[in-house]
Amino acid sequence: MREERGARFTFFALWMALLVAKVAIASRLPLFVDEAFYWQESRHLAAAYSDLPGLTAWLIALGTALGGDSLLGVRWPFLALGSLLPWLVVRLAWPLGALPAWRAGLLALLFPLSGFLGVLALPDVPMNLAAALCLLGGARALRGVDWAAVAWLALGLIVGALSHYRFVGVIAVGLVALLILPQGRRALRDGRLWLAIALGASAWLPLVLWNLGHGEAGWRFQFVDRHPWTPQIEGWRFIAVQAALVTPLLLAALIQAAMRFRPRFPVAQRWLALSGGLTLLGFFLLGFVADADRASFHWPLPGYLALLALVPAVLAGWSRGMRAATWGCLIAACGVALAGQVMVASSDGRVRLADAGMHPANFSGWSELAEAVRVRRAALPEGTRLIADHFKLGAELGFALGEPDIAVLDHPLNHRHGRARQLQDWGLLHEGGRDGWRLLVVGASDVKFSALLAHYQSLCARLGPLPPPDVVEVDAGARRFVLLALPPDPAPAPCVTPAVAHVDLPDDGETVGRRFVVRGWAVKDEAGIGRIVVRLDDAAVAEARREADNAWVMNFLGGTSRDPDAPRVQFETVVELADGTAGWRRLSLDLYGGDGSVERWRGPRVRIDPAR
Question: Do the Cβ atoms of 514 and 581 come closer than 8 Å?
Fold first, then answer.
């Protein structure tokens, strides 16, 4: 009894502390790009969308109606739902006893994927809540179908169907688990259980109708187009990432928990073991043939939730030292996850992550870009409309500026993330006309570097001649945007693109002395580059001109450069620093174009060691 009271108190205290931390983070963390698009969907309310069923947008609409168009306004419904999940894990584990149940809840709080669920306004929040509700309903039905079991199951199936396409996998695993268990087969012979299933199936109707009316675009993207469906070595990386997220000791406990599907264990444990084990097995196998480019580390969470309820019973059979190590690793993982979110929420933290090669680009630069757009648009004629390079920019700027209908150019990112058809439905795909003043916002760092010049040239082909650019660099240049003020009906003229440049020497992270060589290249279609100023942090330390040929660069850029000096695009200069200059510094370039433009380009971070 004393241990139970201690576990219950610890659960309550940690739940409250985490909730406070999550609210604090959610009120400061910039919107993730998907969140911004879901906000845009909430401004175009519908039963279903190209990428998702409607529930995520509906929750954001509710949140902003009550809390305003703020970070917390978007996220508070998801924080509320996410805070319920540990309680449901406690309820799932209750048949094992009160002490194991409270400990299971503690595991759910400390496990980063479930403990911080709700900080972001993502469909995984209601979907995982739905999975837990279905687990509760299924467990009750296995003891004997009653109306409470029907209600739990129906609610879970409805919420899941309105949350994400991926919930199909949860349904499939649950059905297989019921068919394996004798009590499950008996439950399936009860008509009341099929009533719950029918209610859940009806919730898919809006998504089915959307797909039937749009050439199955959503289904094709989610289940065909985004996945290679051929064996790939990245599957091992997926498993390694899971082991790191879960921590190796907890993963071992989860695997041991999944072994409780055998007949000698009570049916409630077999149900959770089968549901969780089959889910993990399915996702681990899917990792070898499915999409490896976009984030998928969170996919197995429904399986983890089922198994977490069994882990305290597993740990009870381990030595005291192993139990302590398991809890210690999980506490450390929770701390790392908390620290990571705090870093991403601050500008200084994002710069530090960028310096470490882990820049969170999808969270970065939106407020700075929005302010730059406000200032630039204020200097243009009244009525100037925005054009975004792709859906991420359109959604993030839309949220920051309160403009949910920003036009967006056709871009590979729109198709890669399954948003092109939705933008077309909203009439937001811009076809390239310039019948009035437009301010084009380009995400230069969102394009593969070798394809950046070709992307600029494609803008020329669609929009005509481009004016000198305004460059916005965020997080010490890790995030780069270009603003182009497009006048109406431009006269035919050669198209001058923004510059593309790179510093080859010194390398990023290299240690140099007070005297060192800076070498690199720079190109600018039609106008060329007259001179280059090398800066250390913000101070000019040297000048350079392009005086050497570099055929490799021409090939790297696909042979499309129309720089008038090509292939003479390489520059080299010597930097000599004053005494007392030491420590980590950032190199950058100011590129003076032949069209009168001046563009800042981020260079490498170097360590100055006067002793070298």
Answer: yes
SS3 424: helix
- Segment (H or E) for 472: strand 470-474
518's tokens: 């800076």
Evaluate whether 128 touches 301 at the Cβ level (below 8 Å): yes
Alpha helices in 448-540 (DSSP H): 452-463
Are 314 and 256 spatial neighbours (Cβ–Cβ below 8 Å)?
A: yes
Per-residue model confidence (pLDDT) at position 231? 78
Instruction: Reply yes or no on whether the pLDDT at 136 is more than 80.
Output: yes
Radius of gyration for the chain, computed over Cα atoms and rounded to the nearest angstrom = 28
As a whole number of angstroms, the distance between CA 473 and CA 445 comes to 10
If you count them, how many residues does the chain have?
A: 612
Number of other residues whose CB lies within 10 A of the CB of residue 239 = 16
- Alpha carbons 68 and 507: distance in angstroms, whole number: 46
Q: pLDDT tens for residues 157-184?
A: 999 999 999 999 999 999 999 999 999 9
**pTM tops 0.85:** yes
Supply φ then ψ for residue 483, to 5 degrees: -105, 130
The confidence score (pLDDT) of residue 437 equals 94
pLDDT of residue 294: 66
- Under a CB-based contact definition with an 8 Å cutoff, are residues 441 and 397 in contact? yes
Longest dimension (CA), the chain: 85
pLDDT at 534: 96
Are 299 and 283 spatial neighbours (Cβ–Cβ below 8 Å)? yes
Q: Is 468 helix (H, G, I), strand (E, B) or coil?
A: coil
Q: In what order do the strands lie in the sheet with 568-576?
A: 500-505, 515-523, 568-576, 546-549
For 316, 328, 354, 380, the CA distances from 247, given in Å and listed in that order, are: 18, 10, 25, 54
According to the model, what pLDDT value does residue 357 have? 85
559: left (phi > 0), else alpha (psi -120 to 50), else beta? left
DSSP letter at 259? Answer: G
Residues 522, 523, 524, 530, Cα dihedral to 10°: 60
What would the pLDDT profile of 430-482 be if each residue is shown by its tens digit?
A: 988 788 899 999 999 999 999 999 999 999 999 999 999 999 999 988 999 99
Side-chain-facing half-sphere of 489: CA atoms under 13 Å: 1
- CA dist list (Å): 17 to 79, 110, 128, 338, 488: 13, 11, 22, 12, 55
Nearest in space to 406 (alpha carbons), one of 391, 421, 422: 391
Answer whether 437's CB lies under 8 Å from 384's CB: yes
Query: Under a CB-based contact definition with an 8 Å cutoff, are residues 117 and 64 in contact?
Result: no
**Gap between the Cα atoms of 528 and 522, Å rounded:** 9
Fold of 500-608: Immunoglobulin-like (2.60.40)
**Cβ contact 152:107 at 8 Å:** no
Rounded to 10 degrees, what is the CA torsion of 239, 259, 82, 205? 90
User: Could you report the per-residue pLDDT of 361-408, keeping only the tens digit for each?
Assistant: 999 989 999 999 999 999 999 999 999 999 999 999 999 999 999 999
User: Residue 571 is which amino acid?
Assistant: F
Whole-number Å distance between alpha carbons of 438 and 421: 23
